[in-house]
Amino acid sequence: MNREEIVMVCAPDISGQVRGKSIPLADLHGRSGRGIGWVPTNVQITTFNTIANSPFGSLGDLLMVPDPNAEVRVDFGDGSPSEHFFLGNILYTDGSPWECCLRGRLAQALDALSAETGLKLRSAFELEFQFLDGSPGYGPGFSLTGLRKKKRFGEAYLAALRQAGVEPDSFLREWGDQQYEVTMHPQLGIKAADHALSIRELARATAERLNDPVTFTPIRDLNGAGNGVHIHMSLEDKTGSPATYDPSRTAGLSEVAGQFVAGILFHLPDITAMVAPSLISYARLTPHRWSAAFNNLGHRDREAAVRICPVAELPGMDVAKQFNVEFRVGDSAASPHLQLAALVFAGLDGIRKRMKPPAPTEEDLALLSPSQLEKRGIAPLPDNLSEALDRLEKSEAVRSWFGALFQDVYVKHKRRELEFLDGKTIKESCQLYERVY
Questions:
Q1: How many percent of the chain have pLDDT more than 90?
Q2: Residue 186 pairs with which residues in a beta bridge?
Q3: Which of 183, 216, 369, 423 could form a disulfide with 332 if both were Cys (CB 3.0 to 4.6 A apart)?
Q4: What CATH number did the domain enclosing 48 receive?
């Protein structure tokens, strides 16, 4: 059977999906500069394929322009069509940036960080997911038995990532039922978020070819493990030298890195709805799930909102190059581009205002009383998506970073998602998200 290759031009969106249009590969050259037509109200297509209240209505036209540096083409070698897409930016027809383009907002945040401080962000994403084949368990967590069960998937998956230009760091059996984790090597700037998106999409592509479905849903079962997205971050100066570590300061955080972290923690209540954006995200953000329930900086604590990570201090190893912090609140219901943009904007505000980070915790905060937490200046994260959206809607800081239009669009989008779930049990909601992600 004759075939003509199709390529998709696409972009990450508010619902955590990747949307765009496919065109014949033969037409790509002519589309590279002018892109493809796009509709503003598409931004309001929700997780459940409803359309939220839109300020655009049926009006307006945009361009989605492919980024030649964000091409993914993977031949799985099984006779199936290649996985071929370009990530792009959404622009007005005059070429100016569209306020609701998530990739564009991340670029804006990174440019501001560089322009104002001379710093660049290097980051790496860790993504957890679960298989849906119906068989229980897969052996003990982190076991060879568990790896063996899905080694065929893992090897095909890592090969696909390499073809796509993503540098995988690990593929492992995680602790939860049917749960695995994939990690990547750190990348500078927007490339890290692009790679995180490819990690998720190529897992789905591999799963489809092996008839072995997966889900990146935040949580499948309230009695089970959740699936998080952990973002490791470090700063570099203009010369490319590490700027996160200073052994003379508390917990090894340099002054500027401490300010960056302080900004994230200060603004975290206002951006939680962007990094943990589903109704069921907040079932994961509870104590003793190895996620985060409190707005705290932890020293090597896997339940802290921001964790100061350990480093190998063996002979000949450069501690400064390894030193990083890990943000643990997010999940895959969110676009990696929006998550990283929100963190960069918040961190930059901390640098601007010379905020001081809190003292790192090294204890189980769930054992402390509310009054003890208050004395320490530690607050719980928002309890649910509705509360988190209220915080985001009222945030002057978020409005100054993303603009009033985006803030309004985002809140309306997520409230429509909640309306769709109104009246459904938490179990039914978990099942719906499981199918979507």
A1: 89
A2: none
A3: 216
A4: 3.10.20.70
